[in-house]
Design goal:
alpha/beta; 7-stranded parallel β-sheet; DNA binding; repressor; DeoR_HTH; DeoR/GlpR family DNA-binding transcription regulator; NagB/RpiA_transferase-like
């Protein structure tokens, strides 16, 4: 995935934002031939990042992008969210952290905090945390999903249930119009709920592309959270509803 060109990364980000892109429109955007764009998207499709449809490409149906593809998307937004998150986490804190690329960005922003305890089923986060002097790291047992480098299943829910931590930190696959939190599998939802139930402060890290994004497993609601950190203003219906019930919302400022 790291071998994708800058144009391929931009194509992936455009499709992630609008769901579909035609070959002709993409060729016009970049001022190149349709054949050149077809070569770009063929590589993206071969890597599982996109799916070919008649005349263009779209996101894979009913499933999430591969982790390394997701990590490339909306990097500026995720960095801003991570920076804002770090301001809420003092040294000496304990954190339960979910799968996902936005939580990974956020934990990396804590590198200057000391004496943290990190519980996570995201091995990308665990490996980073292991390199931080003075941090302690715990992970559950079980089979690793190779593409995502994470662990899911009932043992993960039991693992998070054995601790009470200061912060439960997670992202989501999407947010429905009614504020329901969505993900791509029941195991993902179950792990996130286990984190939320066993923390003193639940934190949703949410890049704004997740509003209205299609994911098919329901679990949790914006109103059940303590803190939402997003890179852009929430849609009005969500903002007003969360204000009424005093859920804290932080809009992260873009970082240089």
């Amino acid at each position: 995935m790291d071998s994708f060109s800058e144009r391929q990364r931009e194509i992936l980000e455009r499709v992630s934002g609008i769901g579909h892109l035609t070959i002709e429109s993409c060729a016009q955007i970049y001022g190149v031939s349709p054949q050149t764009i077809r070569r770009d998207v063929n590589e993206l499709c071969a890597a599982g990042a996109l799916r070919r449809v008649h005349g263009g490409v779209e996101l894979p149906q009913n499933e999430n992008l591969q982790y390394t593809s997701r990590r490339m998307l909306n990097g500026a937004a995720k960095r801003a969210i991570g920076h804002a998150f770090a301001a809420h986490v003092p040294s000496g804190s304990s954190l339960a952290v979910s799968i996902g690329t936005t939580p990974e960005y956020a934990i990396q922003k804590l590198r200057h905090q000391s004496d943290l305890m990190v519980l996570t089923n995201n091995l990308n986060i665990a490996l980073f945390a292991c390199d931080q002097e003075g941090w302690s790291v715990r992970v559950p047992g079980g089979a690793v999903r190779a593409g995502d480098r994470d662990i899911l299943g009932p043992q993960v829910e039991d693992f998070f249930g054995r601790y009470q931590v200061d912060f439960g930190v997670f992202g989501v696959g999407g947010v429905a119009e009614d504020g329901t939190l969505l993900d791509f599998s029941e195991d993902e939802v179950a792990a996130r709920i286990a984190i939320s139930r066993n923390c003193r402060r639940s934190v949703l890290l949410l890049d704004s592309t997740k509003f209205g994004r299609s994911a098919h497993v329901r679990g949790g609601h914006l109103s059940e959270l303590d803190l939402v950190i997003c890179d852009a203003a929430l849609p009005e219906q969500h903002r007003a509803a969360l204000e009424d019930i005093s859920v804290d919302v932080v809009i992260a400022e873009a970082q240089p």
